[in-house]
Amino acid sequence: MDTRTRVAVSAALTLGLLAGCGDDAAAPTGPAAGGPAPQATGEPWYDETTPASPSGTTGGTGSPCPVPVSFPLADGWTAKAIEPPKDELAELVGEALTKRGGTTVRCEVDGRQAGGGFLRIWAADSPTVAPRAALEGFAAGAGETVAGQQFRDLRAGGFDATEMTWLATNPLVEEESRNWALAVQSAGQTLVFAVNEGLITERTDVLPAYRLAVRGLTKGE
After folding, report:
1. Are the CB atoms for 149 and 166 separated by under 8 Å?
2. Which one, of 71, 36, 34, 38, lies nearest residue 55 by Cα?
3. Does residue 44 have a cis peptide bond before it, meaning omega lies within 30 degrees of 0?
4. 206 pairs with which residues across the strands?
5. What is the dihedral of CA 57, 61, 65, 67, to 10 degrees?
6. Buried-exposed string 31-61: b where 16+ CB fall within 10 A, e elsewhere
7. d(CA 121, CA 135)
8. What are phi and psi of 3, to 5 degrees?
9. What is the largest CA-CA distance in the chain?
């Protein structure tokens, strides 16, 4: 991907231009089930971060997040389907906005109105890829310099999961950011839930909603 394309991709993702239609405003859920107690405080996992307060769920057939799992939404965060880019943006970046390291984005949970960032859910293009391999490909697929990768296995709601954290450096602005992603397998798909710090978001903006979602994962309908 050339410099012009990467700039367009970064700008589009930051502004949420891919956000599609519809929220999934179900009744508020109870406390996230199956979440492990904090294990590693501070850098890099920040397990002491308290999950956000829940307000509704999303996931499953017919929802704005059509994946074979359901998960709680943080209060003020909304699930939106991803639509392919159109017009000039499509000509410029093509699939670059929806493809990353062997995965395709399925939906986005937007927390900007609540002062947060974005939680994005991706599906591995190969249904047989293992969670760790999916995470490795995802981290390396953004055209950034990746360093400090760490992995751990844990329970995420009702699923066995693998979680990864890493530092990524954007070659355009030389900005280093911390990333977190968790992968699970459900109904023949490998799914990746991903958040990151950015130019305008900190870990306290994104980790509460991420922790809530992954600790409350259940099988979707």
Report:
1. yes
2. 71
3. yes
4. none
5. 100
6. ebebbeeeeeeeeebbeebebbebbbbbbbe
7. 12
8. -60, -40
9. 47
- Scan for tokens 């309908």, then name that residue: 221
In a 10 Å sphere around its CB, with 0-12 CB exposed, 13-18 middle and 19+ buried, how is residue 94 labelled?
Answer: middle
Tokens of 159: 């699923």
Contact 18, 108 (CB under 8 A): yes
Beta bridge partners of 181: 164, 194
Q: How many residues does the chain have?
A: 221
pLDDT at 88: 67
Q: List the structure tokens of 17.
A: 């231009």
| CA torsion, ordered 92, 95, 96, 101, to nearest 10 deg | -160
For residue 139, which of 36, 128, 147, 111 has the smallest C-alpha distance? Answer: 147
- pLDDT score, position 37: 54
Predicted confidence at residue 82, as pLDDT, reads 85
pLDDT of amino acid 148? 96
Read off the tokens for 111. Answer: 């927390």
Residues 58-113: tens digit of each pLDDT: 999 899 999 999 999 999 999 998 877 676 666 566 577 789 999 999 999 999 98
Residue given tokens 């066995």 in the structure block = 160
Residue keyed to tokens 């954007």: 170
Provide the percentage of residues in the chain whose pLDDT is more than 70.
Answer: 77
CA atoms within 13 A on the CB side of 36: 16
Measured distance CA(123)–CA(117) in Å, rounded: 20
